[in-house]
Every structure is written in structure tokens, then in C-alpha cells.
From TrEMBL:
It catalyses: Endonucleolytic cleavage of RNA, removing extra 3' nucleotides from tRNA precursor, generating 3' termini of tRNAs. A 3'-hydroxy group is left at the tRNA terminus and a 5'-phosphoryl group is left at the trailer molecule. It is an enzyme of class 3 (hydrolase). This is Ribonuclease Z. GO terms for molecular function: 3'-tRNA processing endoribonuclease activity; zinc ion binding. The keyword Magnesium does not apply. Its EC number is 3.1.26.11. Keywords: Endonuclease, Hydrolase, Metal-binding, Nuclease, tRNA processing, Zinc. NCBIfam families: PRK00055.1-3, RNase_Z. Belongs to the RNase Z family.
Length: 310
């Protein structure tokens, strides 16, 4: 079951020729989710092959570099004869402003747009096999990040043990794996816990958007398979990071380390590092022992299950 993350926009407030403003595309087994939609997101979708068929858009906050791509994307979806609704999830108190933004160019979408406010701690999307919930972040306006977390999976099925207990090969194997007791060939009852191991965790993806490092993010990102964290500046601009309510690479690395995340992706890179952003990653690596990534626009990451190597 695939969980693929495409970085459509990895830059900060000012775009560069290499980095567009914030946008993260997630394909979870065919469910297509977009986190933030900065200017040029639809062009990134075309260039990097994600397609336009998103089901849900999750907005972290209403700064322009995270939302100015929405009117153009909505208009393009209409030009492509979209008929199914699009749900936009946003922080509390921002729904009216988002509605105004959608209609800012005098364009009435040909399909329904649902704008749903969600507060930190609440589930924005309760889907088949996973949920997306909001968590509080600290920025210069009302802001939040999002956690995509999958349900636990059934434990591993012990086929030799099932055969030893007299369960015939066939449909009863599947019923046992699904948690249903079955009758063996000798008439005895075999319970699932006799042949199925403990539940295995699903995957966890965390997107912070713009934020200062905070303990709440450490808690939200606990044991994350991939943490996508604000890393706007390197240590040379730590004061600027505090003044603008962003994080440095080192601070992002510290959050990932304390959360026990497996991989960290550094995004929202300031345009002042357009020539060389390597200091941000180097300093993050000094604080984080896991895999540390500085993705470029268009990079795609496959998130494996926790119990699968690679």
C-alpha cells in the first residue's frame, strides 16, 4: 500500500527560480491530498506529474505563500470539467477569508467547494484506514500543522502454526487474519491470537508548515516516519527566525530527534540560501541522528511501513 509524498513547493515567502512557495502533495493509495497551495502550485502539479485530482486541501494558515495558488487551481479544476466537490480544511476563524479568496477574481467554481474549519486536536479527515488531524503551531497568525496517521495493521499471520493446528488451507486463513475464530479439521476452535501476531503500526506523516519549534510539535510528531518541518534559516539567522516565528535547521533537527522521528525533511527554505542551502541541512544533522533530507521541488519520497526496511 503506497504512501508517496511529492514536494511541490519547498521555498519560503519569496520564490526563487528553483523553489516555489509551500505545497506538499500526498498520495495515499489513491487518495490525493494537498497541504498548502502557494503561488504556482498548479504548474508544479503539471511539471512533476501529480495531476490535479486532489480530494482534500489542508491549509496551515493564511499567509500568501501558502494560499495564493488556490484561486488559480480552483479555476483550472473548473476548466478541466471537475464536478466532484473539493473540501478545504483550515484553521478556526479563517473560513470566511478563504471563501473570499476562492472568489477573489470574480470566478464562481462550477463544482462545490466545502470549507471546513478544524481546531488543533480535532480530526479533519476520517478516512478508510487513516485520519488527518490538526495540531497547534506557533507563527505570526493563527496556524496549525497536520498529522496523517494510519490505523494499525493486523499482525503477521503464522501459516505453519495454523496448519499445525489443523486449519485447512484456504478462506479460513483470511478469516483468522481478520480476527475471526474458525473451526479446525478436527472440530476444535482456533482463535486468531493463536496464529496472528500483535498489531503492527501504520505509517505517520507530519507537516508543520511555518512554526517556531515547540513541545507540542514534538508530541504530535512522536515516532513519525516522516516529519516535514519548517527550516527557513540556518544558525546565522537564528535571531531572524525568532523574530519572524520560523525555525532554523538545527531547531527542526532537535524537534525530530526528541520526537523519535525516522526521517526529517527540511522545507520553507529562505531565498537568501538560494545559492547554497547546505548549511541548513548540515546543522539539522548535528541535532538529528535520523535521515535528514533537504528536498528540491519535484522530489518524491515513498514512505515505507515502520517494519519494512528501506
Amino acid at each position: 500500500m503506497s504512501l508517496r509524498v511529492t514536494f511541490l513547493g519547498t521555498g519560503g515567502a519569496v520564490p526563487t527560480t528553483e523553489r516555489a512557495p509551500s505545497a506538499l502533495f500526498v498520495n495515499r493509495e489513491g487518495d490525493r491530498l494537498l497541504f498548502d497551495c502557494g503561488e504556482g502550485t498548479q504548474r508544479g502539479m503539471m511539471r512533476h506529474g501529480t495531476g490535479f485530482g486532489i480530494d482534500h486541501l489542508f491549509v496551515s494558515h493564511l499567509h500568501g505563500d501558502h494560499v495564493l495558488g488556490i484561486p488559480g487551481l480552483v479555476q483550472t479544476l473548473g476548466f478541466n470539467d471537475r464536478t466532484e466537490p473539493l473540501t478545504i480544511h483550515c484553521p478556526p476563524g479563517t473560513g470566511d477569508d478563504l471563501r473570499d479568496l476562492v472568489h477573489a477574481v470574480g470566478h464562481d467554481p462550477a463544482f462545490r467547494i466545502r470549507i471546513e474549519e478544524v481546531s488543533p486536536g480535532e480530526v479533519a479527515l476520517d478516512a478508510d484506514g487513516y485520519e488527518v488531524r490538526a495540531f497547534e503551531t506557533v507563527h505570526r497568525t493563527v496556524s496549525q500543522g497536520y498529522v496523517l496517521e494510519e490505523d494499525d495493521r493486523p499482525g503477521r499471520f503464522d501459516r505453519p502454526k495454523a496448519e499445525e493446528l489443523g486449519v485447512p488451507v484456504g478462506p479460513k486463513f483470511g478469516r483468522l487474519h481478520a480476527g475471526e475464530p474458525v473451526e479446525a479439521e478436527d472440530g476444535s476452535v482456533v482463535e486468531p491470537d493463536q496464529v496472528v501476531g500483535p498489531p503492527r503500526p501504520g505509517r505517520k506523516l507530519v507537516y508543520t508548515a511555518d512554526t517556531r519549534p515547540r513541545e507540542g510539535t514534538v508530541e504530535a510528531a512522536a515516532d513519525a516516519d516522516l516529519l516535514v518541518h519548517d527550516a527557513t534559516f540556518a544558525d546565522d539567522m537564528a535571531d531572524r527566525a525568532r523574530d519572524t516565528a520560523h525555525s532554523t535547521g538545527r531547531e527542526a533537527g532537535s524537534v525530530a530527534e526528541r520526537a523519535g522521528a525516522k526521517r526529517l525533511a527540511l522545507v520553507h527554505i529562505s531565498s537568501r540560501y538560494a545559492a547554497d542551502a547546505s548549511p541548513i541541512r548540515r546543522e539539522a544533522r548535528e541535532a538529528f541522528d535520523g535521515e535528514c533530507l533537504l528536498p528540491d521541488d519535484g522530489d518524491l519520497i515513498e514512505v515505507p511501513f515502520p517494519d519494512v526496511e528501506g
